[in-house]
Every structure is written in structure tokens, then in C-alpha cells.
Design brief:
The protein is α+β, with helices and mostly antiparallel strands. It has four domains: about 5-140, Beta-Lactamase (2-Layer Sandwich), CATH 3.30.450.20; about 150-310, 2-Layer Sandwich (Alpha-Beta Plaits), CATH 3.30.70; about 330-565, TIM Barrel, CATH 3.20.20.450; about 580-685, Thrombin, subunit H. Helix content is about 40%, strand content about 25%. The chain is built from 24 helices and 28 strands. Strand 26 (about 635-640) and strand 27 (about 645-650) form a beta hairpin. The longest helix is centred in the middle third of the chain and has 22 residues, at about 310-330. The radius of gyration is 40 Å and the shape is elongated. Bound molecules: ligand C2E and calcium ion (2 copies). The site of ligand C2E has 22 residues, from strand 14, helix 13, helix 14 and strand 18.
């Protein structure tokens, strides 16, 4: 049976047959269909196509609402009232959005009105349905677009804000706390710039996958845009758990990625903020996590920080420094200090490194470690760097020709096209030849070893200036640079030198390896941060070409630097030894020189030398043989003598573990200092059980 009213529509201009064919065609198109019910609600007419489609999930005769998934439909905002409500109350309805019971996600918009006979008697409903499935799918897609990031399918910034708001509300109800992490990828921009956006996009996808895996459902992961991600933890607030999650993330994201046959390594820094039963909103919490992120980045990247309230103060202070720095250049508040660099073997002065200093009218002296990063971020480093370069060249012009000047070039300056022109101009203005200028570049400036970097270095070297790789060993993938970029010099970071004379680390083999590598590549080395005679002896032995450190002078003003160029004497002003690196020990032994042999008491020892007490008359420069019960006697030369005591320097570095942890031959008695008396038996405990620093059992 065909719906009577509808077929009547056609009576004005269409024959019944034409109308029927058109309606059939319409129903066949799948765009919509017609329906009609009896007065008892059962279906009087249902499009055959729908009848077939619903055959699996319906028993006929059925009512219209039997075709509809009422739960899903009611969840739909548009259908505040159910289809059965309208039909039962015999009220007309229009565009009611319902979900079909048929398999798949099929949505309909249903319109109907009650029909009455000529006597006004209610005869049921008649109506039509428009298929909404396509429209609904695109709505879902739109919703998806509005709430999720299209590249990674992670929740977007809005959704994450919502998630954090919900978590805050729910945590407050439960009298609990919730947390959020903000992550920023280290070196992502570089990957994007170097390998292009396709690789960058793929990297972001891989990062998202690793993040989701690391979080393993414990929180919601979102992407805020660019290389910034956020995680919301609705019910995790414990510092230990959050720290362990952050560590996992950092570890996971810093594993290499293989993308379009490029092996890429990046890192991430994380800021963490936890709600604190206070009134901080989602926006506040994100700001706090951002401040913590900033602190993590400032602490050297690849790490995480928790928010702490003093970070507000730091952020304000940073802002203030940035503003003050703008004026400092004009007001002449900057000056340069010059630190001597000397030849390791001869102690001759070979050059100075120019180091910028800022005397702030209120704060006093501000460390470059504080203001350089701010200048880099604000872009002021370009102007400041130009001033440094020009000033250093003008100063160097006053020095003898063989004394060079080294200037630090920040990554921001290095990537500027104008650098070669600036260098040429600074040299020409000062009248200094290019071979006397060294530019110190950190690994950060080179980022990845790309054609662009190589071209920039080639241009600078073409001018005749020298290029040093600064702070070597503190960055990443350093070996790649060394093979492909023709540096003149490698500066071994002071952290290696500082620890080298303390046992229990690998600094000595690392320094040795760097020196060997540099030699193979025809580069020279500078050991930075040499402060003590111990360290001096060590870097000499390891074969570093040059030395820069407090032992040969702290950074000094221009006048003092000039004066230093006029005297050709090397001034060693460091401690004899680094006190922290010595170990107290009292061991009896024998000391021999020039055929004479006497008892000796060892008072303290380091890997490079020892202080001994003996009645044997010793003189500075004497070569001695010290037998303290090790496998071999130690060869040493006397460096100083006073009141029956002498300082001796070993001919070769020794391993303190052999002295402290190896059991000496029976005749060599060790007098254990009082504070260790009780534990004397433990001194010879198995090596792995003894903490070499404290000499106590683990
Ligand atoms: P850097 O380039 O590694 O400079 C060496 C730093 O080590 C200097 O610190 C110097 O005073 C310090 N130093 C040298 N010998 C010793 C030592 O024996 N023991 C110890 N503990 N420290 C020693 P300073 O002057 O505070 O500079 C810190 C950093 O600031 C520099 O590290 C450099 O990265 C940056 N910087 C300084 N001046 C400039 C500049 O003009 N431009 C740029 N871009 N950066 C600069
Ligand atoms: Ca430097
Ligand atoms: Ca350095």
C-alpha cells in the first residue's frame, strides 16, 4: 500500500502512476523513504528497501519506534523526546534525529504528522525519513577535527584544557590532587629545518606513539601544537610516580628514530605541575608546568622539573634582565675579560679567550651563564655578539702578533648569514690578521652536521679565521662533526678535567680518546678548567696541546691582559693539588733514591702523587722509588720538601683502588686513620662491597 496523502500530492499535476514511480525512485536512491502507521501504531507502509534492511533485527508487524535504537537516539541532543512519545501523544514532529537499529552507524531524520479521516477520526501517522548517515559522519569528522590533532590523532589544546578542568573538578570532589606535564622536544626545529616537514611530521607521529605507549593509559596525552605535548593525570600526584613516568618518557623519546632512512635523535624536556587543594585553574596549572618546563630547558634539556613557587620570581627576574639588557649595551655596562691560554709543555702564553662581563647598576656582576641564554632567546645576542667581536679584535690589535684572541659565537649568531661580513669588518677595522682570530662554536651551534653548516664553516675558514669546537663532550653526536667539519681545535669541557683526578670515573680514558682523535684529525686540543697542579700534570701527561684554567690565570681586564702579553713568564697560581681529590692514608713503606733507601710513611695520596714523611734527605727534582706494597714500586719525582715531608709526583697515573682496595704485601702495614679504625677490617673487604669514596661497606 502506498501512503495515501503522498500519492494525492501528485493529483494536481502528476498521475498516480507517475507519482508512484517518482517516490519509488526516491526511495531507491537511499536518500530517504516514507512510512505510514495504523491507528494502533503498527506500520501500515514501510519502504521495501528498509523492510529488507531491517529484516534481521525486527519482527514484523512492528511500530516505527521498533526501527530505532532508542538509547543512542536519546543521547542525541536533538531528540529530547522519544519518537514513541510523539506517536503516543499524536503530536506532529519534524527532523527528529534517531539512530537506526540496523547494523552500522545509520542515522535518520524523521518527520511525521498524525492523519485523520474525513470524520476527523485519528487514523495513524504518515511521514518521511531523510538518511543523515553521510551528514552525521561529516559532523563526527568535524567534531574530531575540533577536538583532536589531525596529524597525531591526539587530543588538541582545547580538549586537553577541558580534560584538565574536568580532572581538577573531580580531584577537588575526591579531595585528591591531579597533575599535568608539558613536554617540549629538544632539537625538533632542527630536524624540521634539516630534513623537511615530511620527516618532521613523521617524527611527531612517532613521538606521539611512544608517548602513548609510555603513559600506558595512566593519563591523557595531547598535542598542544608544534613540538609541544601535554599529559593530564587525573589521579596521579605522587612525586616519585611522576618522576618515574617523566624518566620513562625522556628515555623512550630519546631513542633514535629511523625516518625515511634518516637516523634521527632528539630529546625532550618536561615541566610538571600538581594541583594543591588550592584554587588554581587549568590555565594556572598549565602556566606553572610551563615555568617548570622552562627551568628544565635552562638546566640543560633532556630533563624534567617540578614547578616550585620561586619560579614565578625567576620568571620575573628573567623578564627584568631582558629589559635591562636592552639598555645595558647603550649605557656601556658590558666589558670583556680575557683569560690566558697557554702551551701545555712550555707554559708560554699563546692567546686569550674573550669573555663578556656585565656589571648591572643594581644587581652588580651578572654571570654570562645567566644573561647569554636570555640574550639568545630575545635575539639581543646579535647586537651583543657584534660588540664582543669588535671589542676583542680592537684589544687584540694591541698585543704581539703571535697572541691570538678567541671569541665565543652563539648558535644564533652562527646561523646568521651576516657573520662572515661582520668578521671581515671587525678584523679590518681593528687591523688584525684573520689567523689571530678564533671563533668558538659549541655543538649546539652546529646542531646537525648539514651542508648548510659545512658551507658556513667553509666561508669562515675561507676568511682565514680559526674555528674551535667549544665545550666538547657536553653535547651529542659529536663524533660526526669531527669527521666532517675541519675544526682547528677541540676544547675539552672543564667537567672532564674537573673529575679526572678523582678515582671512580672514566674521565681519563675519555680525555685520552679525545686527544688521540684530535691528533688523528690534525686538530689541537685545549683542556679547559685546569685549576690544580694535579690536573695540570694530568693534562700534560695526556697530551693536551693547550691549557686554559684558573691555574694560569682567571679572566682579567684588558689592561691586565695587555700587561701579561708583555711578560713572557708562565704564572702558575693554582693549588698544588685539588684537596677534594686526595685521600688520607697512613701506610709504612720504603723510599729509595741514588742508592739510598729509608722507611717512609705515606700521609696522603692521589692518582698523580703523594705526600710522604721520611728521614731520607730529599731535594726538589730527585727521582725516587716508592714501595708501598703494590705490585710494583712507584716511580716519582720530588716536587717540594719541608720539615721531613715531601710532595712527590708519580711518573705514571696510578689507580687509587689498587692502593685502598688491594691487600698490600704482608710487610706493608697500613695505619688506618682514627675515624676509620672501627672499620679497619672492612678496608680489605671485597671491592664491589666497598664504596671507594667513603671507604665504608655498602
Ligand atoms: P666558555 O666559553 O666555556 O668559557 C669558559 C668559562 O669557564 C668562563 O666562564 C671561564 O671563566 C670559566 N673558567 C675558565 N677556567 C676555569 C677554571 O679553571 N675553573 C672554573 N671553575 N671555571 C673556569 P664565564 O666567563 O662565566 O663564561 C661562561 C660561559 O658564558 C662561557 O663558557 C660561554 O659559553 C658564555 N660566554 C661568555 N662570554 C661570551 C660571549 O662573549 N659570547 C657568547 N656567545 N657566550 C659567552
Ligand atoms: Ca668558550
Ligand atoms: Ca668552553
Amino acid at each position: 500500500m502506498r501512503p495515501s496523502r503522498l500519492s494525492n500530492i501528485g493529483s494536481a499535476c502528476l498521475s498516480d502512476g507517475q507519482a508512484t514511480r517518482l517516490l519509488e525512485k526516491y526511495e531507491d536512491s537511499g536518500k530517504g523513504w516514507f512510512w505510514e502507521t495504523h491507528d494502533d501504531g503498527t506500520l501500515a507502509y514501510l519502504s521495501p528497501k528498509i523492510r529488507r534492511a531491517m529484516a534481521d533485527c525486527m519482527i514484523f508487524p512492528a511500530s516505527l519506534s521498533d526501527l530505532v535504537d532508542n538509547d543512542a537516539s536519546l543521547a542525541e541532543e536533538a531528540s529530547e523526546r522519544s519518537l514513541s512519545f510523539y506517536i503516543a501523544s499524536r503530536l506532529p514532529f519534524e527532523g527528529l534525529v534517531v539512530k537506526s537499529k540496523a547494523r552500522g552507524d545509520i542515522w535518520w531524520s524523521v518527520t511525521g504528522e498524525p492523519r485523520h479521516d474525513e470524520a476527523g477520526q485519528y487514523r495513524g501517522f504518515v511521514g518521511f525519513v531523510i538518511d543523515l548517515t553521510d551528514q552525521k559522519n561529516s559532523e563526527i569528522k568535524l567534531l574530531q577535527l575540533a577536538r583532536y590533532d589531525s596529524l597525531t590523532s591526539l587530543a588538541n589544546r582545547d580538549t586537553m584544557r577541558q580534560a584538565l578542568e574536568n580532572s581538577l573538578i573531580s580531584a577537588a570532589h575526591r579531595r585528591q590532587r591531579c597533575s599535568t606535564m608539558i613536554l617540549d622536544l629538544d632539537r625538533f626545529k632542527l630536524v624540521n629545518d634539516t630534513f623537511g616537514h615530511l620527516v618532521g611530521d613523521q617524527l611527531l607521529k612517532s613521538v606521539s606513539e611512544r608517548l602513548v605507549t609510555s603513559i600506558a593509559g595512566r593519563g591523557q596525552v595531547g598535542r598542544l601544537g608544534g613540538d609541544e605535548f601535554q599529559i593530564v593525570f587525573a589521579d596521579i600526584c605522587e612525586i616519585e610516580i611522576l618522576s618515574s613516568i617523566a624518566e620513562d618518557i625522556i628515555h623512550s623519546l630519546s631513542q633514535p628514530y629511523l625516518i625515511k632512512s634518516h637516523l634521527i635523535t632528539i630529546g625532550t624536556s618536561i615541566g610538571i605541575a600538581t594541583s594543591d587543594h588550592d584554587h588554581r585553574s587549568a590555565v594556572d596549572l598549565v602556566r606553572d608546568a610551563d615555568l617548570a618546563l622552562y627551568a628544565a630547558k635552562a638546566a640543560g634539556k633532556g630533563t624534567f622539573h617540578f614547578f616550585a613557587s620561586q619560579m614565578y620570581e625567576q620568571a620575573r627576574s628573567r623578564q627584568q634582565i631582558e629589559e635591562d639588557m636592552q639598555r645595558a649595551l647603550e649605557k656601556g655596562e658590558f666589558h670583556l675579560a680575557y683569560q690566558p691560554v697557554v702551551n701545555t709543555q712550555t707554559g708560554d702564553l699563546v692567546g686569550f679567550e674573550a669573555l663578556v662581563r656585565w656589571t648591572h647598576p643594581v644587581r652588580g656582576s651578572v654571570s654570562p651563564a645567566v644573561f647569554i641564554p636570555i640574550a639568545e632567546e630575545s635575539g639581543l645576542i646579535i647586537e651583543l655578539g657584534e660588540w664582543v667581536l669588535r671589542t676583542a679584535c680592537i684589544e687584540a690589535a694591541k698585543w704581539p702578533d703571535h697572541i691570538s684572541v678567541a671569541v665565543n659565537i652563539s648558535p644564533v649568531q652562527f646561523s646568521s648569514q651576516a657573520l662572515p661580513v661582520l668578521v671581515t669588518s671587525a678584523l679590518a677595522y681593528a687591523g688584525v690578521t684573520a689567523d689571530r682570530l678564533e671563533l668558538e662554536i659549541t655543538e649546539g651551534a652546529l646542531l646537525d652536521e648539514t651542508a648548510k653548516t659545512r658551507a658556513a664553516i667553509a666561508t669562515l675558514k675561507g676568511l682565514g679565521v680559526k674555528i674551535s669546537l667549544d665545550d666538547f663532550g657536553t653535547g651529542y653526536s659529536s663524533l660526526g662533526y669531527l669527521k666532517n667539519i675541519p675544526f682547528d681545535k677541540i676544547k675539552i669541557d672543564q667537567s672532564f678535567v674537573r673529575g679526572a683526578t678523582i678515582t671512580g670515573n672514566n674521565n681519563i680514558p675519555i680525555i685520552r680518546a679525545i686527544v688521540n682523535l684530535a691528533t688523528d684529525l690534525s686538530m689541537i686540543t685545549t683542556a679547559e678548567g685546569v685549576e690544580t697542579e694535579d690536573q695540570l700534570a694530568l693534562v700534560r701527561e695526556l697530551g693536551c696541546t693547550l691549557i686554559q684554567g684558573y691555574i694560569y690565570g682567571r679572566p682579567m681586564d684588558a689592561q691586565a691582559a695587555y700587561a701579561r702579553t708583555q711578560t713572557n713568564q708562565s704564572i702558575v697560581s693554582g693549588f698544588k693539588t685539588d684537596r677534594a681529590e686526595r685521600r688520607r692514608i697512613i701506610r709504612a713503606g720504603r723510599i729509595g733514591t741514588q742508592g739510598k733507601d729509608e722507611t717512609v710513611r705515606l700521609r696522603n695520596i692521589s692518582c698523580t702523587g703523594a705526600m710522604v714523611e721520611t728521614s731520607l734527605p730529599l731535594h726538589v727534582g730527585d727521582l725516587v722509588s716508592l714501595n708501598i706494597g703494590l705490585a710494583e714500586p712507584l716511580e716519582a719525582d720530588v716536587r717540594w720538601t719541608k720539615d721531613g715531608r715531601a710532595g712527590v709526583k708519580f711518573a705514571h697515573l696510578i689507580n687509587l683502588d689498587d692502593v685502598f682496595l688491594g691487600k698490600p704485601k704482608a710487610s706493608f702495614k697500613t695505619f688506618v686513620p682514627n675515624y676509620l679504625a672501627k672499620e679497619s677490617s672492612e678496608l680489605y673487604a671485597p671491592k664491589e662491597r666497598l664504596d671507594p669514596k667513603s671507604l665504608t661497606l655498602r
